[in-house]
Amino acid sequence: MSHRNAPLTPTGRLRLARCVVDDGWPLRRAAERFQVSHTTAARWAGRYRQLGASGMRDRSSRPHHSPRQTPAAVEQQVVRLRREHRIGPVRLAARADVAVSTAHRILVRHGLPALAATDRATGEPIRRYERARPGELVHIDVKKLGRIPDGGGHRTQGRAEGRRNRTGTGYAYLHTALDDHTRLAYTEDLSDETAATCAGFLTRATAWFAAQGVIVERVLTDNAWAYTKNTWRQTCHDLGISPRWTRHWRPQTNGKVERFHRTLLDEWAYIRPYTSEAERQAAFPDWLDWYNYHRPHTGISGHTPASRVTNLSGQH
Hints:
12 helices, 3 domains, elongated, Nucleotidyltransferase, domain 5, five-stranded mixed beta sheet
């Protein structure tokens, strides 16, 4: 591919060469006409004489010989270590006794993707997908989060005092429904994750999405006890929703809502030391509004989730 500032495209090179070779133009006249140096004009004219029109294409700038290239045995060692241990260029460089930049180039040369783009369990590249329209698939999951005792937990009181205050505080069960196409999220803090609670959450989540103009067609959950009971199946049937479940031991299938929960922890639950559960819960509606309407989402090219919903009102 030609450099973006190259004065001649392959078509322009061919025109220049034909002016010189076929029409007999002097090199300097052709160079002035096409606004290049006379040496450049001579180069393309020479290639045209030798190779014809096919010689106008770009050539690789890679040298014919690379006497200082990393030995093949070392490259094989780096590739083997990467596949066996799933480690990055820094640790590979230490084990193979090469520079970090060398280890990185070897990985690129052999088509091995970055660790962030591979599955942790298998090391295989992650196959990303996205549903074509809002509501086509909604991911549902529960995040269990320890409640903060009055006066604060270990983040404000220290670990010893935090352990003493922890008794009896219990857990918050954060139920989340996240649309696959838009990443729009609806979350409730509930007291448990029983079948009846999950079914009630689905009913309210479906109504909330409908108010945003999103009609839920399918829901995807893991194989937790509550999602396999008849209560869940009947609720899905009553709402006209098709239930789906992930494969066993494959939480990556529900990875979008898993990633949302990690964002939730980083940007809301653990962003600062709260002194009580009430204080943390009071901050949640504003954070969720920020996530849905204002926060650029890297998974959808920096757009906000709300911007991907057709005719969504209140996109403030």
